[in-house]
Amino acid sequence: MTHTPTRRTVLLCTGTAALAVGCGDGGGDGDGDGDSSAASPGQELAPTSDIPVGGGKIFPDEKIVVTQPEQGEFKAFSAVCTHQNCLVSTVRDGTIDCACHGSRFSITDGAVAQGPATRPLPEERIAVEGNSIRSA
Ligand code: FES
Predict the structure, then answer these.
(1) Cα 77 to ligand 1 centroid, rounded to whole Å
(2) Which pTM value belongs to this model?
(3) 63-89, pLDDT tens digit by residue?
(4) Does 114 sit in the ligand 1 pocket, CB within 6 Å?
(5) Are 82 and 115 in contact (CB under 8 A)?
(6) What is the distance in A from the centroid of ligand 1 to the CA of 101?
(7) Pair 96, 56: CB distance under 8 Å
(8) What whole-number distance in Å separates Cα of residue 62 and Cα of residue 111?
(9) Does residue 116 have a cis peptide bond before it, meaning omega lies within 30 degrees of 0?
(10) Which pLDDT belongs to residue 41?
(11) Which ligand 1 atom lies nearest to the CA of residue 81?
C-alpha cells in the first residue's frame, strides 16, 4: 500500500465524478468525529426495504453492516471484524458472521456472540429518512 496518488485519482476527485466517489471535502458540517468509516455523511446506503427484519445487509464499499433486529429498528456497525480485520461475510440467524475464523456478532448491539473475536463491532451512525437509510 505504498502507492502514491495517481493522476487518475486526482481527476476522479474533481467535477461531477467527486459526487460518485465521495472525495470527502469535509464540507464544514462540524461533524468531525474522526471515525474510520468509508461512508460519506448523508450518503444513501439503501432503502429500508433492503434490510431484512431479524437480519441485515453488508455494504462492503462503505465497510458498514446495517441490521434490523426488530421491525422498524435499524442499527449499523462497522463491517470490519475486530479479530483480524476481515470484512464480515454474512448476516444470518441473528448474527453478523466473519468467514475468516468464524467470529459472530449480534445484530442488535454488535456484541461478540462467538469468538475468536473478543471485541464488539463498533456501532456506526445512520439516519433513517422515510424509506431511505443514510450514513450520518
Ligand atoms: S478476522 Fe474475523 S474471525 Fe478472524
Answers:
(1) 15
(2) 0.71
(3) 999 999 999 999 999 999 999 999 999
(4) no
(5) no
(6) 5
(7) yes
(8) 20
(9) yes
(10) 77
(11) 2
